[in-house]
Structure formats: C-alpha cells, structure tokens
Amino acid sequence: MTLLQHELTDFKVNAFQNNEFHEVTKDDVLGHWSLFFFYPADFTFVCPTELEDLAENYAKFKEIGCEIYSVSCDTHFVHKAWHDANEKIAKIEYPMLADPTALLAKDLDTYNEADGVAERGDFIVSPEGKVVAYEVISSNVGRNAEELLRRVQASQFVYEHGDQVCPANWTPGEETIEPSLDLVGQL
After folding, report:
1. Catalytic residue chosen out of the listed positions 47, 66, 73, 166
2. Which of 27, 93, 121, 153 fits a disulfide with 38 by CB distance 3.0 to 4.6 angstroms?
3. Quick check: is 66 catalytic?
C-alpha cells in the first residue's frame, strides 16, 4: 500500500519548541509545506546527528515555506530534557512533536509495534495535508538534510508545474522535463 496522496488524519499532539510547550494540530500544518521527520527515540546515537543536521539547515527550509516537525514516540517532557542535556539538540528551533500514543507514527505507517518506536521515516506533506513524497529506512542509517531539502524543492516545483517533472539530482534553476507522448516509454 502506498502513502502517496494519503491525507493526514486529524491530530493534536504536544510539542517542545523554543524552550516552551505548545500543541500542534492538523490545522497548524495546513496552508504550508511540511516535513514530518520521524526518528526512533530521544537520547540515542544516530538521532542527534540527524536532528542537528536539520537544525543547521532549518533556515533553508523556512526560506522555501516548509516547516520541519521532528517526531518520536517520546513525550514532550523527554524532548525538553534531551534539549537541555545535549548540545546538538539544543540547536533545534523547529517543533519537536511528542507522539507517545503513536497516533502520527501509526497514521504514516512508521510505527514499529515490537519495539514501541517509530522507524526513520520522512514525509513531505503538501499545503493540503497530503503526503507527496516519503521514505522509510533502517533505524541504523542516518539521513541527509540537504537531500531532504532538495526533495522538498522538487516536490514544490512539480506541485506548481504539473506539466513538468524533475530528473535525478535536479536542483532549483536546472532544466526539467516536459513529458510528451514520445517520452512516455522512458518514464
């Protein structure tokens, strides 16, 4: 089963951001691009390297109108404790969503029931709240924020220019492909 075009279900979760707790709902993610970035757990080994990488690239995501939401099955209190204890996590300015009931992880099919954690999954969500791109990978392999940014940019481009597609390694400003009947067999 694919999650492409899956619409996020209604949700309300607690978040830790800028040294404060607040709620995030589905309504909060509508109207702009979003990257839901699932990771297994706070106080682990690979996760802080990924979250720090996102933190260091956060301004680039904001420049293109995309909010980052990191998500684990930890509570918002654990997010705060990790933020206070780890210099890499202290750099984070984007919302860290708490999903202790795995509502979001189950909705986006990243929940590992046997371990009670989310797998490493990233989901690019359109302003209408629909998944337009996603990837779920092994929990022992870290992801790259610059590649995620490129994928968001490509998703935004094809969203705005439905008559064109982006080739491998495409970045903004490079040539795209306008499919024609002659090219159908090459897609």
Report:
1. 47
2. 121
3. no
